[in-house]
Q: What sequence folds into this?
């Protein structure tokens, strides 16, 4: 049986949603707990798949994970950490990309790590070469197996000078999680500095780590022999917040996003304002609304922080289909993040993809065969369609297009959306969406 969501569009979404801890921080803070010699407490934990995957992987390694049934807070006790069965780890093949971050902490804890084949959204090749290069710099030995990779460190992990070819979020986290307990000093240049990374650094500092972040993308870590536990409230999910903001605009609605934080969303808020969206920024959240009248087209490039984040791009493109005139979006983080526009075109949008860089940010995809620039001509009315969700953000975009469209859409594959949007069906119903969820025998 598979879940099918029927969406009857045309109803402005209106009301209040709460966003909790960031999908791109919480599972990593859970991994960090492995580095401690006592239990940690993580607050503001959302009910999403990556949290379940990491919980299961930690439990397989003897970490005790207890969840408060009311608040969802997690207590993670690594004092019984031990080697896990490879066969059981393999059952998580394809579930998530987070397992690659277990390498450093597991080597520190038990001297080796086996990591299953990774999952995550299909938005490009998503290689792990930076991760493996980083681990080798620390002295790890990487062995590729048929079902994953085994990593050992015969002489322990040692601090190193590392320069990333691109400010990769995951590779920066790999360095942080490996270096804090490595012997000696690590200097990382070309680091990513996303707010989720700064929050992970805050977690590690609470545990006793010595980490300094310079303004030129350099992070310096003095290894310490042991770390303790932490008590931490995860920063809130700015990607989910931005998605609801776009949903308000696309459906001509009015949504208060409890937990949206201005400081972490400045680049998004500037673009939201330029396109013509209304917003009231408050201490605990932000109200996003369509103020009436036409929306304005714009030129936009995704980039690493502090630029306009790639995860904000897909929902915002749906809003741009409703702006009067031609918009240009240059995606510079992933080579293949416009696949979701096919369904938008079927729904009535006018979007052309181009291989050329339609922008000025230096981009790795320019002279290659990737359709990574989009030209969107609007405003075009959207009509309901049959949709199979391609990836997390693309899927949410399809959903908000369906909610704004005339007629009915039938959406399959919605479990992918649950990976990053906690209780999204309940939230949509709370906002007045006209939807039904039912199970159907798989075709
Ligand atoms: N890259 C490599 N080699 C590597 C690692 C990355 O070439 O070893 C490339 C990627 O292919 C990509 C670029 O570097 O073109 C950036 O990837 P990055 O490593 O920064 O991404 P990530 O750590 O895999 C996280 C988020 C993504 C988010 C990106 C960029 C998590 C679990 N995922 O991915 O979130 O888009 O950073 O900010 O933190 C999402 O939430 O929908 C999502 C995909």
A:
């Amino acid at each position: 049986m598979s879940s099918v969501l029927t969406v009857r569009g045309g109803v402005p979404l209106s009301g209040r949603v709460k966003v909790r801890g960031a999908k791109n921080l919480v599972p990593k803070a859970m991994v960090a707990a492995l580095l401690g010699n006592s239990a940690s407490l993580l607050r503001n934990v959302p009910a999403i798949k990556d949290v379940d995957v990491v919980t299961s992987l930690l439990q397989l390694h003897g970490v005790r994970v207890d969840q408060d049934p009311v608040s969802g807070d997690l207590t993670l006790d690594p004092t019984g950490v031990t080697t896990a069965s490879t066969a059981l780890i393999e059952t998580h093949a394809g579930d998530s990309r987070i397992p690659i971050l277990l390498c450093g902490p597991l080597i520190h804890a038990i001297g080796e790590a086996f990591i299953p084949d990774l999952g995550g959204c299909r938005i490009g090749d998503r290689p792990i070469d930076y991760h493996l290069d980083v681990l080798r710099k620390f002295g790890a030995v990487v062995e590729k197996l048929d079902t994953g990779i085994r990593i050992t460190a015969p002489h322990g992990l040692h601090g190193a000078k590392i320069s990333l070819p691109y400010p990769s979020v995951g590779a920066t986290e790999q360095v942080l999680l490996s270096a804090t307990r490595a012997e000696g000093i690590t200097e990382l240049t070309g680091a990513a500095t996303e707010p989720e990374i700064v929050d992970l650094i805050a977690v590690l500092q609470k545990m006793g780590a010595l980490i300094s972040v310079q303004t030129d993308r350099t992070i310096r870590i003095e290894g310490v022999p042991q770390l303790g536990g932490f008590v931490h409230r995860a920063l809130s999910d700015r990607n989910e917040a931005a998605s609801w903001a776009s949903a308000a605009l696309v459906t001509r609605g009015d949504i208060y996003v409890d937990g949206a934080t201005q400081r972490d969303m400045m680049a998004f808020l500037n673009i939201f304002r330029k396109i013509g969206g209304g917003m009231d920024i408050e201490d605990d959240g932000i109200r996003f609304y369509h103020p009436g009248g036409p929306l304005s087209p714009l030129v936009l490039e995704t980039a690493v922080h502090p630029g306009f984040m790639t995860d904000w791009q897909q929902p915002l493109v749906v809003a741009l289909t409703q702006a009067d005139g031609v918009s240009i979006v240059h995606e510079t983080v992933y080579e293949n993040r416009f696949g979701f526009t096919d369904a938008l075109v079927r729904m009535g949008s006018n979007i052309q993809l181009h291989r050329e860089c339609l922008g000025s940010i230096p981009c790795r995809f320019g002279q290659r065969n990737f359709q990574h620039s989009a030209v969107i001509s609007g405003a075009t009315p959207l009509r309901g369609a049959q949709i199979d969700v391609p990836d997390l953000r693309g899927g949410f975009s399809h959903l908000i297009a369906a909610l704004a469209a005339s007629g009915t859409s039938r959406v399959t594959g919605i479990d992918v959306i649950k990976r990053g949007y906690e209780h999204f069906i309940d939230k949509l119903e709370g906002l007045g969406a006209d939807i039904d969820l039912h199970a159907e025998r798989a075709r």
Remarks:
- Residues 23-24, 97, 121, 124-131, 166, 168-171, 192, 194, 239, 310-311, 333-334, 392-393, 420 surround EPU (CB under 6 Å).
- The chain has a mean pLDDT of 95.
- The first helix runs from residue 26 to 32.
